[in-house]
């Protein structure tokens, strides 16, 4: 079953990646409070890589988390919502609004961030208190 999940994730091919972003990426990170990420390089690195194979993870138990919204301008613009639960080592990717070329749009999924993504997520959320643990929000936080 594990191999089937990995193959499914790779075959899905609908993961938005940094390569899909055209132009600057903006990011808004929210825990107990919100802040805009002004470092475009960091915002760009928050995008799920989509280049390495990954496994879709099971829904983690509720835990403190951060909600992150990523956007890129243009008609092929990017709109990705992440929920990052550092204590679970998990991120939920919701790119269902991201690119119109995927029909039907991909459904949100949980995965473990790769080490580079994890470093970017930790840097972006540094100094913010996370949102309290509760059942996961439905649309991305």
Compute the gyration radius: what is it? 14 Å
What is the arithmetic mean of pLDDT?
78
Report the total helices. Answer: 3
- Which structural class do the helices and strands define? alpha+beta
Strand content: 15-25%
Helix content: 10-25%
DSSP, total strands? 6
Describe this structure in words.
Helix content is 20%, strand content 23%. It is an alpha+beta fold. The chain has one domain. A six-stranded antiparallel sheet has the order 2-1-3-4-5-6. The longest helix has 11 residues, at 2-12. It is globular, with a radius of gyration of 14 Å. It starts with a helix and ends in a 16-residue tail after the last helix.
Any key phrases for this structure?
141 residues, alpha+beta, 23% strand, disordered N terminus
Outline:
This protein has helices at 2-12, 40-45, 115-125; strands at 26-30, 34-37, 66-72, 78-85, 90-94, 109-111. The protein has 141 residues and is α+β, with helices and mostly antiparallel strands.
Topology, element by element:
Layout: H1 2-12, E1 26-30, E2 34-37, H2 40-45, E3 66-72, E4 78-85, E5 90-94, E6 109-111, H3 115-125
Antiparallel strand pairs: 1-2, 1-3, 3-4, 4-5, 5-6
């Amino acid at each position: 079953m594990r191999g089937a999940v990995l193959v499914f994730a790779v075959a899905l091919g609908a993961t938005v990646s940094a390569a899909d972003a055209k132009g600057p990426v903006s990011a808004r990170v929210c825990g107990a409070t919100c802040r805009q990420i002004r470092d475009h390089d960091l915002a760009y690195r928050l995008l799920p890589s989509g280049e390495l194979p990954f496994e879709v993870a099971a829904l983690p138990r509720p835990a403190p988390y951060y909600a992150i919204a990523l956007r890129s301008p243009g008609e092929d613009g990017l709109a990705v919502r992440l929920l990052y639960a550092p204590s679970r080592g998990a991120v939920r990717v919701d790119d269902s609004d991201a690119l119109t070329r995927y029909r039907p749009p991909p459904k949100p999924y949980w995965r473990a961030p790769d080490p580079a993504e994890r470093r970017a997520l930790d840097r972006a959320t540094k100094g913010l208190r996370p949102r309290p643990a509760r059942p996961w929000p439905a649309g991305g936080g």
